[in-house]
Amino acid sequence: MKSSLKRIFGIALTVVMCLGILAGCGSTQPRQELLWQSTLGSPLSALAVSSGKVAAVVGGWDGQITAFEKNGNILWKARLEDGISTLALADNGEFTAAGTYAGQLSVFNKTGEKCWLQDVRSPVARIAFTRHAQDLIVARRDRVLMRLNVENQNLVWDVSLDKSPLDFALSANDRRLILASREGELLFYTIDGSPNLHAHYTFPQMNRMLVSPLSSDGALVLALIPQGVALVDNRTKTQSVEIQQPALNLALSADGRSLALGGADSVSLYRLGRPQISALLEPLGKLSKGRFTRLRITLQNNGERMARNIEVSLEGPLDCKPAGLPEELKAGESAASDKQSLQPLADGSLPVYIHLKYSDDFGLRHHHTDRLVLESAGSEPAN
Questions:
Q1: Are 236 and 250 in contact (CB under 8 A)?
Q2: Which residues, 6+ apart, have CB-to-CB distance to 228 below 8 Å?
Q3: Domain boundary residue among 243, 271, 299?
């Protein structure tokens, strides 16, 4: 499976180009947009990214935490007493969480003010907010996974693990937790209540793992391993190495639009592309109730990635079942078919809803609905 990742962390351009191979980077069309880049001046140890006011937050080995706005300006700075081991940004933009190698766990508000600080008695391997920043999931180096309420710090649950946690991520629906162990395994847990293990995969020497938020159930996982970027599809129970090029670190925003890649002392932010299908309907004859005429349907991919498994359906006072349309469109590509049969079920202008469904390079589904008004051929278009 191929996919288009957009780079964000100040690694060489060759790494960016290789990451583009994930998206089927056979063309020379640009697949990424550099939003900004900042040199930190000190070694970077942790990174998180979001689509909110705090676009990215980085932490250093000296305990320094720096939050950036979307334009790259520094929003605020804070400091903890030890090196920052992990960072997390809430999807609502209200909170930033930080863990340290000394076992400190802290939450900051959107202006950088410290809300609370506690000692969890073991180095913090990974943290993540649940939706709406209600809870904070924490993985500790002493093989403990815990869930805390963000507002009052109360413990919701904690559980001992059989494996040493290296990293984890939550699915977008908060029902699945995917944990990377130091033993080189990828473990899938359900967390409706206490964590329950239901699947695992083996990747020796895996050093970083990322769940694609485009898959709301967390079934699609990207992992950084020494050989490069690996992909696990828990739907088909398959795993593969998608690119033979190592990377140092990466982070993905909750809406999947921004990706960060990390280098030794710099951070860069890129926007992720997606397919975006639009449809134009053009009657080729007069529209009269009960009389058949031909309809031209033109599909256009206005996005930045391939669209696959395209489905088109029409809803309104008409009888038309689109057929013979392309199932795939490359970025920027369009295709038309004027062999569609249309029977109006009302006189005059026809308000129509166009339902579009399609997959991206990951095999993940997208859908949206457009509305327009059909007029007889030669008529002035309706607004």
A1: no
A2: 18, 241, 242, 243, 244, 245, 246, 247
A3: 271
